[in-house]
Design goal:
Elements lengths: L6 E8 L2 E7 L7 H12 L19 E7 L7 E8 L6 E2 L5 H4 L2 H7 L9 E8 L5 E7 L10 E7 L14 E3 L2 E7 L3 E6 L11 H5 L2 H17 L12 E6 L7 E6 L10 H12 L17 E6 L2 E11 L5 E20 L12
Bound molecules: (1E)-4-oxobut-1-ene-1,2,4-tricarboxylic acid (NQM).
(1E)-4-oxobut-1-ene-1,2,4-tricarboxylic acid binds next to helix 2 and helix 6.
């Protein structure tokens, strides 16, 4: 499996992220052996990931593991793994909606799902959370090509409450926030309450040590209250700073994932923000400008915007519940081939 012939691997851009896509059968089944192999594939731990195919940023150090699904309502199972750049850590604690966009084309290319005439839909079980998604995209002609594929990603109505703490506002580390989970546990925070505008570049925000310390304190307290336990070493919850829109959208965002600042916004991150904007009494109330009709919201972020369709209803207990969430992403195959992991053991030796 990991001999001189290397490992079968497809590198894809999914939305604003990039990841290595594998069939589960091409990786060790045992999680510790699989994770050790993936660290060596990506070149971690190393801030530059120089000896692997990772791109030296959390958004480009991602892995999808895909297998046929045993569930009657899913075609494939998708396990997302976040490979830490500078630490020897691989986490299955979160989903990734950007990498999700490439799963359908990958499943067709690997012959797991038959290509339909015109358009193909693939029903996906997201193994990390058990949630479902359906992706629909134009059926590829022949083998994978480098053309971007427009993928409609749809999430079914949510079953769980959107407010993991049970409240539309909480106060952590002296700051009023809204904790929301529409696929990605996220803490919404008015940028102004953190003494920033919310329009800064990610680099400027990342360099702000006072902000980092405050966000850290909010995140640890919020994680406990959201039922996530001690989140010191996990990638969730994310933190999204909110400011009034500047380019005709509903809101401007800066999202910490959780230490680095996202250069855009995640798909499920945007789904959670969109739901948060629609929740009565959330901290977005005085910041966001919601469209007067329709489900579509434009979430502004550091490098542009994400349009997302989101509608809410209420559960029997009166708590808000997601009715429908949909977004369009593009996915593109960058290479399809074999990757040669750095040999174990990980240290020593000339380069
Ligand atoms: O929220 C980055 C990304 C993501 C996650 C992160 C994502 C999502 O942009 O669905 O896609 O929040 O770590 O890839």
């Amino acid at each position: 499996m990991t001999g001189p012939e290397g490992l079968r691997c497809m590198l894809m851009r999914g939305g604003t992220s990039k990841g290595a896509y594998f069939l589960a059968d091409d990786l060790p089944a045992e999680p510790a052996a699989r994770d050790d192999l993936l660290l060596r594939v990506m070149g971690s731990p190393d801030p530059r990931q120089i000896d692997g195919i990772g791109g030296a940023h959390p958004l480009t150090s991602k892995v999808a593991v895909v297998s046929p699904s045993a569930e009657p309502d899913a075609d494939v199972d998708y396990l997302f793994l976040q490979v830490s750049v500078d630490e020897p850590l691989v986490s299955d604690r979160q989903n990734c909606g950007n990498i999700l966009a490439g799963i359908g084309p990958f499943a067709v290319e690997r012959g797991m799902v038959p290509a339909e005439d015109g358009e193909t839909s693939v029903r996906i079980r997201m193994v990390n959370s058990g949630d479902r998604a359906t992706v629909t995209f134009p059926t590829p002609e022949g083998r994978a090509s480098g053309a971007p594929v427009a993928v409609v990603v749809e999430f079914p109505p949510g079953e769980g409450a959107l407010l993991p703490t049970g409240h539309s506002r909480d106060t952590f580390a002296g700051t009023e926030v809204t904790c929301v989970d529409n696929g990605m546990p996220t803490v919404l925070i008015p940028a102004e309450s953190l003494k920033v505008t919310g329009y800064e570049d990610p680099e400027e925000l990342e360099a702000n040590a006072e902000l980092a310390a405050h966000l850290h304190d909010i995140r640890l307290a919020a994680g406990e209250s959201m039922g996530l336990g001690d989140v010191t070493d996990t990638t969730v919850p994310k933190l999204t700073l909110l400011a009034p829109p500047r380019d005709g959208g509903a809101v401007t965002t800066r999202t910490f994932i959780p230490a680095r600042c996202h250069t855009a916004i995640g798909v499920l991150g945007a789904a959670s923000v969109a739901a948060g904007l629609r929740i009565d009494g959330s901290v977005a109330d005085d910041i966001a400008q919601l469209p007067t009709h329709g489900d579509r919201l434009r979430i502004e972020h550091p490098t542009g915007f994400t349009d997302i369709e989101s509608s809410l209803t209420h559960g029997p207990d009166g708590q808000p519940v997601a009715e429908r969430t949909a977004v369009v992403r593009t996915a593109r195959t960058l290479f399809d081939g074999r990757v040669f992991p750095r040999p174990a053991p990980t240290s020593g030796g000339p380069r």
